[in-house]
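hey m, so remember when u said the tokens were messed up on ur end? i reran from scratch. heres the input so u can diff it against urs
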Amino acid sequence: MERVGVARELVLGYVHALNAVDEAMRAAIPSLERLADVLGLVRSRRIISRSGHVGTYSYEVHGAGCRFVCDNGAEVDVDFAADGSEIFDLWRLRWYGLSLPKPLDVTDEDLRAAVRSLQPLLTEVRPGWFSVAS
């Protein structure tokens, strides 16, 4: 049960870090209404480039999402659903844990249990993909 508790803290840390990224990006780019809008700003090529720095974060847009790296090395990788909601899977949660200044290596099984324990805060939007409930 202790391992699931560590995984739960990792998931909550990811959600907190994702919220911090959202706040930093919207503070730096006033036209950004939601984090998913970064894709449109990059695709327009007039507002921001595919990769760069915003505040204490570097970012790199990829496919349907973006990877943000904090100045302490922690990585928050997120994809965006068709409706613009932020979604993530177990791989992204594990990678976040491994990128922390004091890395946390948890199993997918422990992460699944942690995510289940955090419902209704988290919603499974499709098999293996999660979103923070609004």
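this time it looks ok to me. The beta strands are 51-54, 57-62, 65-70, 75-80, 86-89, 122-126, 129-132. if urs says something different then somethings off w ur setup not the seq
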